Amino acid sequence: MIRTLRVTIRVQNQEEALHFYTQRLGFEKRDDRSMGADRRWVTVAPKDDPVLEFVLQPSDWFEGEERQRHNELVGKDPTIVFQVDDCQATFEQLRIQGVELSLPPTRMSYGIEAHGKDLYGNTLVFLQLSPAN
């Protein structure tokens, strides 16, 4: 049985990313443990989601060419979509918290969505779905 879904977000600086996701997006830190050799396993998640966690994977986990490949992918992860109850309120709260926002709440055929970026340029979509017919 699958209990937890973990999605890896490539980051340059794990502590900086931890601060962004907890202080600006309002996530909670779920796990923070040593992996030996100055490495940390750090996960964050939306406070009310018992299943989803994001692994903050820094470049310093890797050496040589593998580190270079990792660095080239920072900020180019897939778009992350968060379903929200109130897109306008979420947008305003994120703006106050200093999140870079690129699309204000915009009505679409399926609901209302706004776009932002994390501190490395990964696209964040905040989606308020229209009620089902």
From TrEMBL:
Residues 3-129 form the VOC domain. InterPro entries: Glyas_Bleomycin-R_OHBP_Dase, Glyas_Fos-R_dOase_dom, VOC_core. It comes from the Bacteria. It holds the Pfam family Glyoxalase. This is VOC domain-containing protein. Coiled coil: none annotated.
